[in-house]
Design brief:
Helix content: 25-40%
Number of strands: 14
CATH superfamily of the largest domain: Hen1, N-terminal domain
Strand order of the largest sheet: 2-3-4-1-5-7-6
Largest sheet: 7 strands, antiparallel
Shape: globular
Length: about 475
């Protein structure tokens, strides 16, 4: 099994830093079913290619096949020891090896090139033998919404006998400008989805694995239900749990012990995500700003509402994900805007932990459900960039209230697998007061959602207002 990862980013050899694998070395990594090898067929400033080669030991694989639940290690356990393509085609075995060998790269961490790890770069991924149930159309359905250009050719059953037709394998090449960590996570999930088979028994922990690897892209994928069903082997209970958790949990689950309305009364429940947007817009109606920037705008839901708000002359949205910005542009129909409408709007890619002059000059900046996705050691960088350099007149921060989590049936741990932390009310107050004092802002705290007398509201909001007049421009 072979995967090549190429880039023309300059210098292209920075790929070695991102993958944490030196271009001048051949490195081997033992797997329970074989050996994975990383090497570089080419490495220059103009173009660099890293190759991951997995050699499966059929004997070791056969010995593992009976170790699953009820002695069934694979879905095709009865023939799996005798007839299979696992040694040659990029299957779930390859996905497991990829996740292990490139674990640090998948996490998006790179001490030597931290800014590059957060940046979308030109990539080309090639897999010459990929099992794909559904052929080229399925490969396009799964990869194109993620920003990839898909080139896929079916592999013939036998080149000497063209009348036999094509096999279920594809020679797949993906090209696009994507963050490397996102590309690796997408492959880790979609390889077994395309194959529609796994080499191990799937338990409840598979849902957590899927949501961790799909963080930032799976929830917005137009075929997310297809991805979930195939990844989880169409196991109905696991599929149901995963689809529920993919939706933002506090927008889907009802609090435990909530009173039930009589059967003849239809209750219209407003999702918490909608209530957050309404709370931010209500605050802006009080402030009456002329310019607003949505920091971490995602697919542009808030930006869309801001553009429709009377009195706001300038709106911006930024995000670290190029794919999210593409989705925002589609949502806002940027290609059909008039010249005057386009002058009001700015969309750009930026990481909030690095100085960027484009973040400055706004009356209000909004961090809505963003801060909890930042690694705690990087919070000080975000504080410095947003409050120290960009210095909006008002910073609005919304974030989950950890105390309220006990009101959600079935929730264990944090509300989203990509959350790095969740604050209780005292912790948010302490953070807001600390950074407010450090950068010259006063602090006001509010709640969003139904107020529980014991645990407060599900979402909490901090409003930081700059006390000095320098730095911002209307």
């Amino acid at each position: 099994m072979l995967l090549t990862i190429s880039t023309t980013h300059r210098p292209a050899t920075d790929l070695g830093f991102l993958l944490h694998k030196h271009p001048d070395r051949v490195q081997e990594f033992s797997q329970s079913f074989g050996t994975a090898t990383v090497f570089y067929p080419e490495a220059s400033d103009e173009r660099c290619t890293a190759a991951l080669l997995l050699e499966v030991d059929p004997v070791r694989l056969a010995r593992r096949s009976g170790k699953g639940k009820h002695g069934k290690g694979t879905p095709d356990f009865s023939l799996g020891q005798y007839v299979n393509d696992r040694s040659y085609a990029a299957s779930s075995l390859f996905g497991v090896a990829l996740a292990d060998v490139f674990s640090t790269a998948r996490s998006g961490r790179c001490v030597a090139r931290p800014e590059l790890a957060d940046t979308a770069i030109p990539l080309e991924l090639a897999i010459p033998a990929l099992p794909c149930r559904g052929g080229v159309p399925i490969a396009r359905r799964l990869f194109e919404p993620l920003g990839w250009t898909v080139a896929a050719e079916p592999v013939p059953l036998d080149a000497g006998f063209p009348e036999w037709g094509d096999s279920r394998y594809l020679d797949l090449t993906l090209t696009g400008t994507v963050r490397l960590a996102d590309a690796l996570s997408q492959l880790h999930v979609l390889l077994p989805v395309l194959d529609e088979s796994k080499h191990y028994w799937q338990g409840p922990d598979e849902v957590d694995k899927l949501l961790r690897s799909g963080a930032g892209w799976l929830a917005e994928h137009p075929d997310r239900e297809l991805v979930v069903r195939r990844y989880l082997g169409r196991r109905g209970r696991l599929v149901g749990v995963a689809l529920e958790r993919l939706a933002e949990v506090d927008d889907v689950l009802e609090p435990a012990g909530a009173e039930t309305e009589p059967a003849d009364v239809e209750e219209v429940r407003v999702p918490l995500n909608t209530r957050r947007h309404e709370a931010v817009l209500a605050l802006l109606a009080e402030i009456r700003p002329r310019s607003v920037i949505d920091l971490g705008c995602g697919p542009g839901r808030l930006v869309e509402r801001l553009l429709a708000t009377e009195g706001i002359a300038r709106v911006a949205g930024c995000d670290v994900s190029a794919r999210s910005l593409q989705g925002a542009a589609r949502r806002l129909h940027v290609d059909r805007m008039t010249e005057r409408q386009q002058e009001r709007l700015t969309l750009f890619q930026s990481a909030l932990t690095y100085d960027d002059p484009r973040l400055a000059g706004y009356d209000v900046a909004v961090l809505m459900e963003v801060i909890e996705h930042v690694d705690p050691p990087r919070l000080d960088a975000l504080e410095r960039v947003v409050l120290g350099s960009a210095r909006p007149g008002v910073l609005v921060v919304t974030t989950p209230n950890r105390e309220y989590n006990v009101r959600y049936e079935g929730l264990r741990g944090m509300r989203h697998p990509d959350h790095r932390f969740e604050w209780d009310r005292a912790e948010l107050r302490a953070w807001a007061e600390r950074v407010g004092a450090a950068y010259g802002y006063t602090v006001e705290l509010r709640g969003v959602g139904d107020d529980d007398p014991e645990v407060g509201t599900p979402t909490q909001m901090a409003i930081l207002t700059r006390t000095s007049t320098d730095g911002a421009s209307r």
